[in-house]
Sequence to fold (203 residues):
Amino acid sequence: MTLSFLLTSLIVVASPGTGVLYTLAVALAQGSRASIAAAFGCTLGIVPQMVGAMLGLAAILHTSALAFAALKWCGVAYLLYMAWQALRDKGALAIAAQPSAKSQRRVIVTAILINILNPKLSIFFLAFLPQFIAADEPHPAARLLELSAVFMAMTFGVFALYGLFAAAVRDRVISRPAVIAWLRRSFAAGFAALGVRLALSER
Fold:
C-alpha cells in the first residue's frame, strides 16, 4: 500500500460530495447513531460499484451513451427527490427526537442508493484504482480487492467523523426552528445542485 494511494484516497473521500452532504444532513436530523448508519450505507454503496468495475460494467458505462445516460438520469431524479424530502422534512432527513430502528434502516438504504445511482463512481473506480496496480502484479484482482477494501475503510472512517462532528452540535440546532429551516433549505439546495452537476456531467 503506497503513501500516494492513501493520500489520494483521503483527498477523494474527504472532498464534499453527495455522501458527505447526506451524512451531515442525517447527523443533524437524527443524531450520532443515524450518522454512523449513513456512513455505513455510503460505504456499502461502494461495493456494487467496485464489483461493476471488476466485471467491466464501468467500461460499458464509459463507452455506451445510452447506459450511462439511463443511470445518470436515475441518479439525477433521486438527488432531486432527496432535495424535495429535505424541504418537506420527510424520510431519512426528517428531524427526529428519538430515531427508531426503522428510520436507521431507511438511512442505510438511502445512502446505498445514492452511491449505486452515481455512474461517475463506477468510472472513477475503473480509472483510479488500476493506477496503483503494477503491470507485473501476479494477482491483479486480489490487489484490486485490497485497494477497494482500504478505500471503503477510509470512506467509513471519514464519513463517520463528519457525522459525529455534526451530531455533536445537533442539540444546539434542533432547539432553534429558524436554524432548522435554514439548514433544511441549505441541504435541499445542496442536493439539487449535485443533481444539476450530475445532469451536466459527461462520460
